[in-house]
Task: structure prediction
Amino acid sequence: MGDISLKSRDCIGLADFSAEEIRYILNTAKDMKNKLHQDVKKFDILRGKSIVTLFYEPSTRTRTSFELAGKYLGADVVNITSSSSSIVKGESLRDTLYTISAMNVDAIVMRHKAEGAAAYAAKVVDPVIINAGDGAHAHPSQGLLNLFTIEEHKGKLAGLKVAIIGDILHSRVARSDIAAMTKMGIELHLAGPKTLMPRFLEEQGIFVHDRIEDAIKDADVIEVLRIQLERMKGGLFPTTREYARIFGLNADRLKLAKDDVLVLHPGPMNKGWEISNEVAYSLNSAIQEEVENGVAVRMALYTLLLTGGENK
Amino acid sequence: MKTVFKNGRIIDPKNNMDKISDILVENGKIIRIAENIEESDAETIDATNKIVAPGLIDMHTHFREPGQEAKEDFLSGSKAAVAGGFTRIATMPNTNPAVDTAALVRSLKERADEVAKAHIEIIGAVTKGQKGEELAELLDMTEAGAIAFSDDGHYIDNAKILLNALDYLSITDKIIISHAEITELVEGGAMNEGKVSAKLGLAGRPSVAEDIAVMRDIMLAEYANARIHIAHISSKNAVNIVREAKARGVKVTAEVTPQHLTMTEDTVDFTDSSTKINPPLRTAEDRDALLAGLKDGAIDMIVTDHSPHAPEEKDREYIYAPSGFPGLETSLGVLLTDLYHTNKMDIKDIIERMTAAPAKIFNIDAGELSVGSVADITLIDPNFEWVVDEKKFYTRGSHSPFVGRKLTGKAALTMVEGKVVMKDGKVL
Result:
C-alpha cells in the first residue's frame, strides 16, 4: 500500500477508486474500529480540521455516523440541513457551496436528491467532497461498509456470491455495490420486481434474476434493499403484501442460501415487507453491526482523504 | 443600392444550381445571376472560395418573448440567428403567456419588425395555454399571420384534441408540429434511458416514448388526411415509422437537430446540464439512423431547437436544470464539420435541408436564389476554422455542449433583404 495516497481526493463514487485503493480504505477502517472500542474515543488525527455535513435529504444514521466519526477523530463538525438553512430561501447549490467553502472547511459531506450533485460540488469548490448519497447514483461509504462487514465475517471478498434484493432501479446503494463489489472479485446476483430493475444493466458483468430464489441460492451474503411506499403509488408494484410474499426475504427463503449466509440491509428497514422480523434479528443478520462499521469506515475515509493517513 | 457577390460557388438546391458565378442584388432583390457582372456603382463582396447559399431557415427556435426575456428576446435571438447564417427563423409559442391568440401573434410580428435582424415567423399554440385541453383560436391566429402551430415542449396527450386540431386546420395550409414524447413515459426523465442512465442513476426518457407518440400522431394525421410535422426526431424507430408512413402516402414531414445528428448519450456528464435536451441524446445507432434518414428523405429538414436559458438556470443540479441550449450560432459549423468535411453528406444536401426544404413544408416564399426573389443570402466559408466560445455568442443563452469544439466552416456574411446584417462574425 506504500505508494497509495488518497490525500485531497474527493469521494464521489466507488467507480473512481481502484481495487487497491478500496483495499487501503478497508484496512484503515480496521484500525479505526479498534479505536472505536477504546474507553476514551477521542483522538487528534483530525485536530484542527473542520467538516460540514450538508444534507438536502433526511437521514439519521448516515449523518450521525459522519458526525460522530469526525468528532471521535478530533475534527470540528457542523451540520447543515436544508430545512434550517438558506437553502429554504432559494439559495443555489453553487452559492451554498461557496459560502461553506469560504469558511475554510476541509471537507463537505453531502447528501442530495440529484444524481451528480456531489460531483458538481467537487467541480465548484476546493474542500474535499464526500458523497453521502446523490439520488440514485452513489452512496460510496455505504458500499465500503458493506464490503467491510462482509470481509469481517467471511475473511475474504473475492469469490463470494452476493445477492442484492429489491429496488435496484432507485438504489444508490446497489449502484455503489455494483461498482465496488465487482472490482473486489465478488459475484453479484440481483433480483427484484422487473419494474424496479434498471434496463441495460447486464453489460456491467453481473447476473440479473427474475426470482429472488434464483439470486439467493447458495449465496454467501444477501443484501436486502429498502422498499419505498411512493413506488407503490407510482404503480411499480401493487401492494406491500404481494411484495412481501413474492420478493420479501423470510426464514423459508433464507434456507436457499448457504447456512452461514450473512444478511445485510442499509436501513431503515420496513420489517414485514422486504425483510421478515425473524430474519432481521436472526443470527445471520449483521444489520446492527453495519451501523458500527459505518462509523469506522467513515473515520477511515476522513483520515485518508484529509491527512493522507500519515498521522496514523 | 446594389451589391455584387463576385466569384462565389452558388449553391441553390431549389433551382438545382451549383456553379461559380456572380449575383447582383438591388433594392433588396436578386436581379441577375451571371458570370462577370460588372457594376461600377455596386458594392462588391468577394465570394472567392466561399459558398453563396440562400439565407438559412430555422423553423424551430425559442426566443422567449413574451415573459422570459432574461433568457432571450427578439433582438438578442435574431442577432444570434444572423451570426449563425440564418436569415429567417420561427419562434415556438411556449412563452409566458403562451402565444395562443391572434393579438399575441400580431404584437410579436410588430415587435419583430421593430427590432429583429432577421425575418421572424411566429408559431402559435395548438391549445389554450399549451395545456392540451382546449383548442386555441387557430383560424384567428392564421389570419394574424401565424406560420404553423405547435404545443412544443409538451405532447398533446389527448388524442381527440389533436384530431380536432388537424381537422379544424384543414381549411388552411397551416400544419401542426408535434413534440412527440408520451408524457407519462418521460416524466421526471433527464436523459435517454439506456446504459448510461443505468450507470448514473438518472431517470430515463426511453426512446419508446417517442416511437409511440410519433406513431399515434401519424395515424391521426392519416385518418384525418391532414399534414403533420414531427419536431426534433431522435430515435431510430421513429425514423423508420416516418419513412414507412411516407411510403404509403401519409402527409408527414420531420426535422432533426445538429445535436441529435452528432452526439450520443455517452456525452452526458451529470455535472454539466448542457447535454440535457428533450428529446434526449440517444445511442450511436439512433444517431446513425437519423443521418441515414436525413439523406434518404425520411427526414426532411434541419432545425436548431435553439433553446436559450439564463446561465444561472443551467448552472445547477442536472435534474433541476431546464432542458435545451442555444444552437443558432453553432448549427452550420457543426454540420459542416461533422457531416460535410467527414464526407457523410453532400454540402448541397445540407443546404437544401436548411433552405428549400423548410420553405416548401411551411409554404414560405424564401429559401432560394431565383432572379426576382428577396435577397436573403448566406455567404459560407466552408474552410474557416474556429473554436466555439460562449463569450462570443450573441444569444443570452449559455451551456452549449459544443463549447470548446474546434469547427471548420462558418457563415462569413449574412444578408437580409439585400442588407448585410452580419460580416465576419460581427452583427452590424
Residues 287-307 of chain A form the longest helix (21 residues). The mean pLDDT of chain A is 94.
